[in-house]
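Hi support team,

I'm filing this because I wasn't sure whether my run with pyridoxal-5'-phosphate finished correctly. The job status page said complete, but I'd like someone to confirm that the output block is well-formed before I use it downstream. Pasting the exact inputs I used:
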Amino acid sequence: MASMQEMIAQAERDLLHTYNRYQVVLDRGEGCFLYDTDGKKYLDMMSGIGVFALGYGNQEFNDALKAQIDKVIHTSNYFYNEPAIRAAHRLKEVSGMDRVFFTNSGAEAIEGALKAAVKYAWLKDGAGDHEIIAMDHSFHGRTYGALAVTGKESYRAPFGTMPANARFAKINDLASVEAVFSDRTCAIIVETVQGEGGIYPAEESFLRALRKICDERDILLIFDEVQCGMGRTGYMFAWQKYGIRPDILTTAKALGCGIPVGAFLLTEHVAQHSLTAGDHGTTYGGNPLATAAINAVLDIYEREQIPARAAETGAYLYDRLEELAADYPEIIDHRGRGLMQGLEFEGTVGGIIARAMDRGVIFINAGPNVIRFLPPLTISKDEIDEALRLLRESIRE
Ligand SMILES: *Cc1c(COP(=O)(O)O)cnc(C)c1O
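And here is everything the job wrote out:
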């Protein structure tokens, strides 16, 4: 077999260079640990960017996938299939939303959410120039529509005219939202806890105010929970902590625990006044393999009380990170909910993350100055202690 260095060199010749990757070829996983092709073991504090909530090698999950593979993997949306019927119903139950559309990714869930919101407004006034208010530091994905509402200028700048008219405001700053509001505004999109942009939780009062604005003007509130949803904050969906239901909800990442799947969910009212037959579609979306994954995930979540567990270990992580932040003056802020937290440093964190990797623990950043904590939701307190011990060494070095 080729050495890790040879494989990396090959990859750099063949793959489009859109990522600066860690110089590691990962091979297999078990629980909260990953192994590279040289057999080196890593404690995983990023779970494939918040995807592998159940940890690696969950036998029940793997067996459910294998069983579905042997039955049928794909059928197309011209037919019904049993795993999708069950997954849609289960997802409604756990989210309190009314209608489900399955996608293949988070970005595609955003695309569908935006199309539904614009169509809802179009049905009222027939206008073609509706605007969407999004937040600075937001991240909604890399496809054109999702990019249009992503609050990072450098991601959008090279790509010309955007397909959705976005106006940007500041999270937790209602005045900044009102400042960009117009009679063309048709929706407000916000991550309940901003992930990629630096782990900024939306405050309850802010979400409540957005809900009120949207209700008063009959425009739609979209919560993007692709990263913060699926139990990560200690609730199945982060907004459930406040009981502030959106009109459209997006989910992906941990939804399929590694099988590429996402969804957007709507209230019955929005579903009845937005996308209809012929408006939207997908070849793969909601196929039997992907929805079998969702069913297995939701079964295991329910039986093992995964969100409650994330709340408990999340609180433990919070306390430990408060201690850590107090010990290092270069740490200037600590934010987050549940098992989605961030430590903001005065300087960049790339060096710390690289040294941690050498020591066998994988962290991810969220912007240049923030170390993001996004472990599998099954992580134990001992594993958290171990990760933070190695992090302290990596900061000190
Ligand atoms: C990752 C992410 C997306 C995009 O999901 P993909 O599956 O990468 O397309 C959208 N919104 C949020 C909040 C995300 O974290």
